[in-house]
Every structure is written in C-alpha cells, then in structure tokens.
Design brief:
Strand order of the largest sheet: 6-5-4-9-8-7
Radius of gyration: 19 Å
Structural class: alpha+beta
Number of strands: 9
Amino acid sequence: MPATRTESVERAMSILLAFSSQNTTLSLAELARETGLHKSTILRLINSLQIYGFINKGQDGRYRVGASVWRLGLIFRQEFASRENVTPALRELVAATGETASFYVKAGMERVCLYRENSPNLVRFHVEEGMRLRLSTGASGLVLRHFSGEAVPDVRVFNANGTAHSVGETNPNISSVATPVFAAHGELTGALAVSGLISRFDDAARAAVVPLLERLAKSLAV
C-alpha cells in the first residue's frame, strides 16, 4: 500500500526548501517561481508557517526562514557526530590531500552536507554546509544508500570497510571517495568524504587517502 501523503504539507515543505545559502531571502514572485505554486496558495501557507516561526517577513517585503528552522537544525545535529569531533578529521583530510573534505548525512531522498572543510586551492569542489545533493550520485551517496539498507547497482564498488569511489557522477569534473561512519552501537550516522578535481584527485590520489579516511571514520564513532 502506498504511503499516505498530504498535499498541503508537501506544498508547505516546498516553500521552506526553496530557501538556500544562495537564496536566503525570497520575494513572493520568487517563491512562486521556485515552487510552481500560485501566489494565493503560498500566502495562505506562509500565514501558518509564520505562526509557528518557520518563516519571517522582513520590512522589505521579502521572506526569510524563521528561528524554528534553526531550532530543528540544532536538534538534527545532536543526532550526529559533533562539529568539535568532525572538524579536526576534516582538516586532517584537507591537509593530506589538498581537496575538500565533508561529512554527509541522509535526509529522505537526498544527502545533506552537515560539515565541511573546503580545499585551499582556487579551483576546487566547493560545497556549503546545509547544501542538499542527490542521494543517487557521488561516493557519499553510494555509502549512505548502501548502509541504510537501500539497493545500489553493484556492491562490488565497496571495499571490505565499506569505502566507495565515484568519478564524474555529481559533477563531470569531480571525483570522490567516501566511507561510512557508525555510532558506537553500530548505527550508521553519516559518510566521511573527500572530493576534488579529477585531474588532481585521480585513482592513485584517492587510493592513497583511503587508509587515513577509514581510520578517521572509525575515530568518529560515539
């Protein structure tokens, strides 16, 4: 039996998901364009979202996410490895590879970059914390799908420790390698990943960082 869905809730969620680090404020017209909803529908849903603190309207007439989003974000982060634990691991990976290191978590049908340290190189794979990416691509996507019980095309892409590589899936110029991070009781908490330009982060470079990546992932078990 298909899962029961509530259209009004999905429409409200589409309004919240229209905001991003690149679009922190949106006008009514921009919300309509991003969501595909009629302006009258958006206004009706925003009235409810404002009551519960999920959206605020500024004096300039533009809309912003409200404090309730931040509160839920803090609760969400408490379920995963803390920034204080993850940041040193990310920095060590960046120092060892010169590429971008990230910690991803599964959120529905997407993966979210919870923490990251960007490469110091001017030309790099750049990802922002909170950025949502497809779960169907990238090494971290493979890891999160496989170890949360979802089917993947070929389990042979994983080594004995669950590490996987990806070349050109999320971006044709980017390759990545990722490994699972488990809690002390064995539950999957996320994926630790390194991503960089294919021209630099080639097969040999990815293979060289795997032992360090896997060791740091094990150190994050809490």
